[in-house]
Amino acid sequence: MDGTRPSPQVRELIRQCAKIVVNARPEWLEELDHAVLKANPSIASDPELAAAVGRTNRSNLYFWGTANVRDPGAPVPPNTGAEPLGVARDLVRRGLDSLSLDAYRVGEGVAWRRLMEIAFALSSDPAELHEALDVCSRSISAFINATLAGIAAQIELERDELTRGTHAERRETVALLLDGAPVPRQRAESRLGYRLGGSHTAAVIWTDNPDTDLAQLDSAADAFGRAGRARPLIVTASTATRWVWTPGPVDVSVLRPAGNVRVAVGSIGDDVDGFRRSHFDALTTQHMMARLHSPQQVAEFTDVEMVSLLTTNADRAAVFVKRVLGDFESASPELHSAVRMFVREQCNVSRAAGKLFTHRNTLLRRLARADELLPRPLADNSIEVGVALDVLHWRG
């Protein structure tokens, strides 16, 4: 920016454009998030990071937009607030800080194309549009450069805190174990304060809601350890994610995470290989919950493994559900639960009725109603119907 003030007409055009940016349509924001995440698969594969990047996109749009509503065409100071700084810290913790630049540049390109569309919708004067777009182009570029520089400077000041000390030592040791590095067991156990022999159950505990009290994550991690009746190993993977391991099995039915905290539980496994596999199973479960926008707060890998495989392609999964369930897809939750339990109990009416705490005749009536809505009789297609209902159960 060279300090030259735009003409009054151009200032007003920029102000009107900025007002629309501040109140961006949901589909515009989705387009921005999709482009940034598509260009950064390492971020997209992490539900918490993906949600945080989305919040940062909105923060940057709002920051630049409100500045130009107040003073159109004036230099915009860097946005070094909580959202962008928090994402940068988490990228450093994961060793992904080089991706920050790519994410901002992709977002800049998408936002610039949308701003041009807005400007051309508001004015048809070539000279006015030329001046306004020239000012905005330089303004956005300067804003992004200043924001990245400000974040980089702040992160450099905090890098020692982020990458050294007891927590970072545990995080580094866990990363080596997960990568299959030949870390001596005695040394790893000493650094972690956790025995690697025997069996393990891992969990990923996280939140994608920025208003969540992060102390609730630590409470959930402690509760996971109590459910396993042993002292857990807890690693702070990022600001809003905890990786947890506890020896032996875990009674998942007693877990009651508070607020927006979510828990993905891996399968039980033995020794170092089990430590590693259980964690990756928990990550698979977490990614499935995020991909399907699942309303469930707690999920076990053993319950969702088939659904996870089936929903890798969400569009194909939706087609499968529609084909198998037909009109039954939109039936009541009571009907869905009745049929799902009936299939799980090997189509035994008495056992299913007992699990549902309902009368046998009530269950029979619900099964008859389901047959009226299903494209094929339940007796001829119970396996596919059960799988489709599992997808519905986990899908938001």
TrEMBL record:
Outline the extent of the RsbT co-antagonist protein RsbRD N-terminal domain: 26-170
The segment(s) forming the PucR C-terminal helix-turn-helix domain are 338-388
Q: Which domain of life is it from?
A: Bacteria
Question: Short name of one Pfam family for this protein?
Answer: GGDEF_2
Instruction: Give every CdaR GGDEF-like domain span.
Output: 187-287
What InterPro entries does the annotation carry?
CdaR-like_regulators, CdaR_GGDEF, PucR_C-HTH_dom, PucR_C-HTH_sf, RsbRD_N_dom
The record's family statement is: Belongs to the CdaR family.
Protein name per Swiss-Prot or TrEMBL:
PucR family transcriptional regulator
